[in-house]
Structures are given as C-alpha cells and as structure tokens.
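Weekly modeling sync, notes
Attendees: S.R. (lead), two postdocs, one rotation student

Agenda item 3: backlog of single-chain predictions. S.R. asked that every request posted to the team notebook include the full sequence so nobody has to chase files. The rotation student volunteered to paste the first one in as an example of the format we agreed on. Action items at the bottom.

Example entry:
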Amino acid sequence: MKEKLLNAIEERKNELYELVGALIKINSESIGTTGNEAEVARFVKKYLEDIGVESELYSPMSIEGFEKHPDYLVGHNLENRFDVTGVLRGKNSQKSVMLMSHSDTVPIGDESLWSFPPLSGEIRDGKIWGRGACDDKYGIAVGLFLMKLIKELGIKLDCDYYFTAYSDEEYGGGNGSLAACLKYKCDDYVNMDCKNFELWVAGVGGGDVLLEFAADSPKGSCGDAVEALYILKKELDLFVKARKEELLGEELYKNTYIPDTSMILLEAKAGDDGNDLDKGHILIEYFTNKTEQEIDLEFEKMCSDANTKLKEIGFKITKREMTTRFFHFVKSDYQNSYVVKTLTKSAKETSGRTLVPSGAVLSDLSLIVKNGSPNAVAFGVGRAFDVYGGAHQRDENISCDNLLEFTKIMGSFLMNY
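Predicted structure, as returned to the notebook:
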C-alpha cells in the first residue's frame, strides 16, 4: 500500500502542482494585526468536503478560555481569521498525528518588481511562482493532497491523521497554531513551515522589539537623531554579542547560521520626510535561549547604558515595545522521539536523504512544543529568507522536484507512523 501511494504521488504530481497554484491565486496577506485568510480557509474546507473528509472551520476565539490562555496574543483581530482542520480516522484512534501549515502570507509589496504576477501560481522553469509558494501554501497542498490520495486509494492508516491549515503566523502572531493544538490534542505534530529539508527539533526564543527615541528640544536637522541611532546600534551590538555566545553553547544551534544572525536590523529611521527631525526609531529581531524575565532585565540594563550616552547629545529612549509575541526557547525530546525516528526512516527509504536534527529560527514550533506535544517538530521544503525567490522575497517560488520529493517523504511517514 505504501508503494501504491508513492506511485500515485508520482503519477498525479501535476495535480499537486496545480493545487499549490490554486492556493497561491487566493490572496491571504497578513498586514500586521489583521489578516485575509478567510477565503483560503473556505477553499480548504470545501476541498475536504469534496473528498469526503470530516472537517471543521473555526476561529481561534471560538475555543473556550482562549483569551485567558497565557500564550494568547491580543489585538490580532481573530474573529474572521479561521483555522481549518480535517481528520482521516485510522485503525487505531488511540494514536494520532497532525500535519500543519499556515495559510497567511506576508504582503506582496511592489508588484512592479516581480518577474511573475504574485498571485499567478504560474508553473515555469520547474518551479511554482507566487506569494506563499514556499511560505507556506506548499504545505497546505501537501496535507490536502495526501488526504485525498489516502482516501481514494482506500488506505486505512494505523493512526488518526489530522491536517490543519492555521491562521495568524506572520508578524509573530501564533494564535492559529495555538488554537489547533488546544482544540485537537495529538500524540505528535509536524509543522510543515520549514526549509531545505531541515528537521527542526528546537525553537529559538526572542522576538521583535521597537525602540523609539527623541531629543529634549526641537531640532532643525535630523543629523543629531542619526548620531542617536548610531549610539543605539552600538549598544545593541553588545546586547546581541551575548545572544550569539549563548546560542553557540546550544548543541542544536552551534553548527547553524543562527548564532551569527542573533540580531536582525529590520528598520532604522531618523526624522520623517522633513518632519519630526528630533525623533527616530530602530526595530530589531533578536534570538535568545533566555526566559522572558531574564531577557527583560538585560534590555533594561542596555537601555539604561544607552540613555547615559544619549543624554550627552540631548536624547533619550522614549519607548521600548515588543511588536511580536515573545517566543519561548524550546527543545523537543528529539533523541527519544518516535516522530523524529519515523521521519528519518521515511526520508532515507524514500529518497536516500539523511535528516539531521537542528534548531529553528523564530517559528510557531515554540508554541506547538509547549502546547501540543513535547515531541513536535518542523520539517519542510520552503526556501530561506536570504535567497532570491525565498520566503518573504519577491518572485517567491518553490521547486517542483523538491516539492515532489517532500510529498513522497510525508506520504511514507504517514504509512510508517
């Protein structure tokens, strides 16, 4: 039956590619604290209904006690930002696994800079193009396609197979994955929001922080504000040096690029188009293995040291604010994890690929490990942020060959599980 499934994946691969394209055609941009996931959620719900799979569409806010949960992030307007979960019942309903992918995307940006229409889902040069292609609509397509084939082939898995397309992932939301874990308790979770066939078994902590500063008196030029930016950047460099050292001490991170990118400068600004020349701000993303309380104390000290130097030029920090949730550092019990062993076996037997457990960047894995299962992992074939056509980049795309290999691995995984 496993061979039958893998053959069907190969024979019907164009159906898979077209499904990714159809999902890309649906605009599901997330704009900070609001999202446009409703239409893609309804598409997923209808797909599941059409293939005869039990499913539910729900808002995270519909879950009893959700607003009181310690990991609920307020202000993300969740009433129409739906999750959709489908389930194929197996021989043994005492055993369950959930594959999951997020349905929202970052904004398209300036369409004139794209080589392909960003909502085209065009298949060309062995790739599928468009916003969300590799972050994370390919994962939705894989989850749905496998449900369809397993159902049509009459395969009865040894477990209940859940698939969830969840909302509110971008901009540090996390409410959608949290809702899925609270509503559907499974033994294992595989979040298909990952890249390059990496197997993430740890989630780094941290988040995005905005620092605003202003002068004690009006300015006729933003030159002094630029100097204030420079002072803040120097203090942040010292702050992030400690972050790099602590991640180099983590076995799962020391051989990755993540310690060297422990702080990402997202935005730095002085003045505002000729106005507010006495003000500015800096927005950073940082990674850590410290607790929220520990890192907050370090931020307070960093801001105090910065204010001492800023005072010399008549400036001070006026605001420090997290613009995302705080992501807690987590590690799954990967050395004893059945899901890790099964994924590793499935990759080796399907395509000869060796999977090496490693640590993730900021991702919903931290929420899934904490609220779903201590054995949860992320595994996927998305593309990195810093490559042409990668996640969040213009001309976003995914390789058809990689997508096909990944789908076969996940099909084998479900059969082995």
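Discussion: group reviewed the output briefly. The mean pLDDT is 96.
Action items: rotation student to repeat for the remaining queue; S.R. to check formatting next week.
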